[in-house]
Amino acid sequence: MGGSAVSVNLCDPPHPLQGQVAVVTGAAQRLGRDIAESLAGAGAAVIIADLQREKAEAAAAQIAGDGRSAAAARLDVTSTTEVDALFAELVQARARLDILVNSAGLGQNVVPIVKLSDEEWSQVLNVNLNGTSVQ
After folding, report:
1. 8 DSSP β-pair partners
2. What pLDDT shows up at residue 124?
3. Hey, which of 28, 39, 48, 96 would disulfide with 44, CB 3.0 to 4.6 Å?
């Protein structure tokens, strides 16, 4: 009677995100892909939205090949037109969005900031900062 009790709910579903729809930007590789795989593993239907269409399609195929739900979409997060089109299509096809992860980002050219050209710096800001707020 004096010990601590551990509560286990055997009714917890094995896939807590079952039936939910998730969009993960920048999900063709690295962190975004890991996030997409985790969401799909928890039962969510995942849309891998990335500028690199072929890599996004390969990631979606791998996830779907494991028996989970995944689709790919080409998306430039700096383009309001593309963002609007993706979400209009999503509303039409799925009628819902439960999870949005903004994981798209640039930073592959790792050098001191003073060595970036104005064009490179502008692109980094446009994707990493502005890309999360395009509506």
Report:
1. none
2. 78
3. 39
Tokens 């299509």 — which residue? 89
CB under 8 Å to 99, separation ≥6 — which residues? 17, 20, 21, 22, 23, 39, 44
Residue numbers in the chain where pLDDT is lower than 50: 1, 6-8, 10
Residue matched to tokens 């609007």: 84
Strands, E, within 7-104: which ranges?
A: 21-25, 45-50, 70-74, 99-102
User: What was the pLDDT predicted at 56?
Assistant: 96
Where is 115: in which H helix or E strand?
Answer: none
Domain that holds residue 62: 21-104
Count the alpha carbons within 13 Å of 83 in the hemisphere toward its beta carbon: 18
| Domain presence at residue 72 | yes
* Distance, CA of 77 to CA of 135 (rounded, Å): 10
Structure tokens at 12: 């917890």
**6, part of any domain:** no
CATH of the domain at 96: 3.40.50.720
Q: Does some domain include residue 109?
A: no
